[in-house]
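Notes from the pairing session

We agreed to fold both candidates in a single pass and log them together. This is the raw record for the first candidate, unedited. Please don't reformat it; downstream parsing expects exactly this layout.

Candidate A
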Amino acid sequence: MQGDRQVMGSDRLQVVMAQIDMLVGDIPGNAEKVLTAAHEAVEAHDADVVVFPELCLTGYPPEDLLLRPSLDTRIESALAMLAERAPEVTLIVGAPIRDQGGLFNSAVVIADGRIQTRYDKQKLPNYQVFDEKRYFSEGASPYIVEIRGVPVGLTVCEDIWSDGPVEQAAAAGARLVLNLNASPFDMAKQERRRAMLEHRARDNGISLVYVNLVGGQDELVFDGGSMVFDRSGVCAAEAPCFEEGLYPVTFVVEHHCQPVTQPLPEPISMEASVYDALVTGVRDYVNKNGFRSVVLGLSGGIDSAVTLAVAADALGPDRVHAVMMPFRYTAGISLEDAEAEARALDVRYDVFSIESMYDSFMETLAVPFEGTQPNTTEENLQARLRGVLLMSLSNKFGSLVVTTGNKSEMAVGYSTLYGDMAGGFDVLKDVPKTLVYQLARFRNTRSPVIPERVITRPPSAELAPDQKDEDSLPGYDVLDDILNRYIERDMSEEAIVADGFKREDVARVIRLVDINEYKRRQAPIGPRITERGFGKDRRYPITNGWKPGV
């Protein structure tokens, strides 16, 4: 027996939510992490049942690793190890299980030294970043497992967002539903989850435990925020977002299975949640891929300033190298502000002029360029020389180049292929320009690291004399509103104009978005923080004849 099983004269069930970060593909390592968490849950929290995230043995999303011939034997070995070495506790573990010719996204129940049973996910998402129907077969029915005399229903992620599985579990007699998740972050996701869980619990008169993955995986960020709702739809417990941990919840078992209410964490602002998501995405991408450090071009502008702050917060200042690469068009205040940012964050900072490199290139190109006038070719050369410098530092010292382009720029192609787009990870790839400013002000509330004039001065690529972004683009407040409608909401040109925007602005922005698909395909990945980022979310053909209109 694991201690006193009575709470004020009633039976209790101690559930521990294992909100943990997994490495995709490392099945033995993930299994060891599950085992360690199981022992800690018993020793520190007297757990009866430990609930892990969806597909925790493979990590999420495993993508085409699910097609590898050795998947089944690796999963079988991991589950056998857990059954043999797990402590006296019930484990609910997410894993892909092959059975009767199909592969299922399953919640596996391990107890008493063996695999007891499993539940197969019924609702397979196939939208946005999800393509589970490519890999999995649908489960067909609910499953109720008895844990310390309590009938418990199991569901997996999308099951709880859709009508059917929770209702089936309740109808089959479940008094508690455990839901395993790998639900990626976006800016409004936690509020949507909370509303959905409240609805499911209240409408079915059943308590719910929602356990979510935490950590970064390529462009996806998982924010945790695991929650428990009682049968009346009241949130009784919530784990903090972006923090690994084991979070125990006590259920009083009488006629119902009622969670003991805990103090809930303070709500965090949208800016705080986005900033923490970026930090998580950078930290895990760098660490999980084995990079020792990162290097980035620091321009004195707002985008590189926020990128630098995120990188330093994610990795520590000793693993961040900032490089200013001035040219004749670089303003003196840009040099001053870049140095101030680097000093405030205590990162390594170097200044390497590209002037002589540019002159050498132009000398070489003098003959083929004879008789032509300077244009964006010369501007792009500056950006490409900076890319060469950063990639050389990357090759020599094993640093990952992090780029600084924001979503607004990526959308309209306001970036240089093989120049400022050269690198391995774009921290702001899914962050609209207007939100970049908000993040800068938010970061300064934690400690002032971005000079005020970086936030207030007009943005410029500084590739030509007195250049301003708004010479080439609508104001970012207008641009971002148009982009949101066209990219994230799929509104047509006519519908956007009907919302009050100038037709010439709308037509121009849509054209820029459409013709720059080829650039975005060659851009580095970056953390997804909106409901529709560039990458898995939005898959448009480069070569196409689609015309804007209604």
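Candidate B (folded immediately after A)
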Amino acid sequence: MKKLLPLVLARFLAISLAHADEGTVDVDIRPQPLAAALESLAQKADLQLLYPADAVAGKQAAGFSGTYTPKRALEKLLERTGLTFQFTGPRTVAIRTDGSASRHSAAQIDESSPIDLETVVVTATKTERPASEVPATTAVIDEKQISQMYNRDLSDVLRRAAGLDVQRAGTNGIAVINIRGLGLGRSSTLINGQFADFLDPGIGNRSAIQTVDWDNVDRIEIVRGAGSALYGPNAMGGVVNIITKEAPEVPNVTRLFFLFDSLPTYGGGFTTGGTVDSVGYFLDFKHLSSDGYKSAPEPAFSPGAMGTMMHSLEKGEWNKTMAGGRLNWNLSDKANLKLGFNYLDDHNNAFDRPHTPSDGQYGQYSLEYAHWLTDDDQLTVNLSYRDHQTDLTFDSYFYPFFLTTNPQYLLKEDAKKLSGEIRNRWNIAEGHTLLVGFYGSQDWARRRTLNLVSGTLDDHPRNDITNYALYGQYELALWDRLFLTMGGRGDWFEYDLDNDVTGRAARQSYGIFNPRGGVRFKFSEEISLRASVGTGFRPPDPYGLTGARNMPFYEVRPNPSLKPEKSDSFDLGLDVTTPFGSKISATGYYNHLTQYQLLSMHLEDSRLIYQTRNLGKVDSYGAELEIQQKITPELGLFVNYTYSISEAASDSPPGVSGLPEKGRQLPLTPRNKAAFGLVYESNRFSGRFEGRYVDRQYIFGDSRNDPAYALGSYVTADFRVTYRHPIGEKQTMDVSAGVRNLLDRRYETRFIDVFAEPRVGFVQLGMEF
């Protein structure tokens, strides 16, 4: 049998190559970027071409025309490009750099198990690089993984990621991310590489990750570790980059779907897109309505509270309309223009308070122009605009002795963010790349709090913040084994803040510089070691700079001396691919955060004085383990585990709140966290069974990590199965079904009494044509 196996596999390879030579195709390729020429040939010859984007970046195709077999056309197209190709199936071709094809013998090729080409990432260096060459801790959640999950918003996708926690905050459950335990608001969200968060953290109601439709996402790249050297504010724990879909390479693909679950939730939508000549488009639309979330079934008690926290016994409800899209236009052989947008219209009643309707509209619009000045020099210009409009009517949430069910306040949020970036990537010489860029943004944030009982305007802050930055990065690649990056970014901020109710104003400016460096050494194609060091920062809170109300019994005093928080970050990692098909990534990390912003309190002439000050320090350290195992060509296993210590590293002065005692764990940071699952994928069937374990967490306001008030640990599980049935040459119908929260666990997702949904069954019908 052992002697026959190589002969059988060799015969299979010969048959595959013979199929590649069968038939001819008329080819007319004009001079253009190699990636575009490959796409054109793939459509004409009905081929599936597999290659890392970095392999073709910056390469040009010489024009040619005539009648060729697919094999001969590929040979002509790849002449003098340094690339080779190999048929791994009758219509599937793997393209690689010279020499890499020799690593795969005929005995390794199997049509049912195509060669696993490497993931290409952008976020870690702002340039397309294979993940095995990036000296940073990265993870990618791709379109296929997202489609195998049952999501209620995009934040659900992130819950399975190592080193990252998603918490609900605010009245309506704003999803905020916490990377490596540094706390909420200390990691950055990007949309297509552009910073999407508002610099005024008081603007909330919906975070950026909740305003993008998950069906419009190509992949999510997560980079753990300080990222301010490339992305500026808040990137102390890391960055999450949401990359939306681009146009399909075929003339048109349309997909319709309808969804129903047991809450009940119902709705539907469509995606459509295609490419014709030099123009490609993608459009996404959906509408969902739901009876909402599980309400808090009983009152709860919070440490330090004067009475009982009361909650609605009614379920919340919501409906949302989402849309998104991309337009790609190849202006010439060397220039490309991309337009993109994401929009959410959201109406809901909060699930933890009675009578708290919220209405919001959120939009994100972007433009990207890329031009190859030469074969080794690319100029890119980005413009991005974000608009946030919402009205939230709410009651008085907490009273010691009674609960009002009448709306008392109307909060109106109006925020806009305009940002732009121009960068130039220059391949100086073989293995040497220089990236330089300029970034600028302007934030306009307005909030009004109306007292509906008295008819007065209680609060009206107006915060304008300008941010300019220059950054540079040098990348070195030697012998295909050593990869080095080093660079830094200087940021300049100007604050123009005022509140016409309190009469408080602030005019501040400051600058900060953040360096970064990283190295990866590949002992072989299967084993590599990486390390990185960097710094990060979080700008001063506008609320802390201006203060707020001045009442007879208390005052929120401004602090014009407030400084940005700073962090130093280190990590060391090992990536291994075993002979058994396992991919293992292990990382240890350490972060030290200083100038932590805390709210101090003291008595002054019988009045309580509040003021935000830089009084705290935090240490965060731990380990992350990620394992992927291919069991069969169709079945795979994944496991990740995070161990995180995130504790106060300094004693807070008397009368200061916001951090626990020195050596105690920070709130909402589980010490142990794990995700695990099985994934099956074939032509007709796919399925995903997964579970999550989250350790005990401590709540806000608990300075001593008191177990009596801790959120309990839990294990939850989900599964989804899909059957795809062909109904025509290029048409399919699919049916998906599954259960979310299979074990019906009752667990809290916020500091107190905000519960996850109960067990939910769902069915989804779809058609693609």
